[in-house]
Design goal:
Elements (H helix, E strand, L loop, with lengths): L6 H5 L3 H12 L5 H8 L3 H13 L19 E9 L4 H10 L6 E6 L6 E7 L2 H12 L5 E9 L15
Antiparallel strand pairs: 1-3, 1-4, 2-3
Helix pairs in contact: 3-4
Length: 165
């Protein structure tokens, strides 16, 4: 199960922690010496602070932003999945298994008429169709799956650090 960060955790981030989060959010590969210099603390202090941010679940990881088309998966889609009835076992099974399926980039449990949005990247329209039929529509409890092709992706400019540039 994913580690949950409570609102109280955000209040525990002092100005140095907030600055570190902002810097890491811009470039997660920033060397410790640069981070320390930018926030005005010793390198050893900076290392401890960043380690603490990781341990508390504030910094969940550092990831590369890969273009799916450039690695042979040009077809992206959001698949809206609706369950018939709301048995906890169906949701738990879905939650455990779907993120492990090939091509799944993210899955969102949401409110409203849709129960989950599943973001996938596939190598072709046929592969997308097969994914939906083989891995989603035949799952216990799934009543409906509706696929929307993604034509373009725009990355928001908002930051989570809470600090303005």
């Amino acid at each position: 199960m994913a580690k949950k960060v409570h609102p109280e955790t955000a209040a525990q981030l002092d100005r140095v922690d907030q600055q570190l989060v902002a810097l890491l959010e811009k470039d997660g590969r920033t060397p410790n010496a640069t981070l320390a210099r930018e926030v005005g603390v010793a390198e050893s202090t900076c290392l401890v602070r960043v380690r603490s941010l990781r341990e508390r679940g504030v910094v969940r990881g550092i990831h590369a932003d890969i273009d799916p088309a450039m690695v042979g998966r040009p077809v992206q889609a959001l698949i809206a999945v609706r369950f018939g009835g709301h048995r906890r076992s169906h949701f738990e099974e879905f939650r455990q298994e779907v993120p492990k399926l090939p091509g799944v980039l993210q899955a969102f449990h949401v409110s409203g008429a849709t129960d989950y949005f599943v973001h996938v990247a596939c190598d072709s329209a046929d592969a997308l169709r097969d994914f939906v039929l083989d891995h989603l529509t035949n799952r216990p409890g799934v009543l409906h799956a509706e696929t929307a092709l993604i034509f373009d992706t725009l990355k928001g400019e908002a930051t989570l650090s809470g600090l303005e540039d």
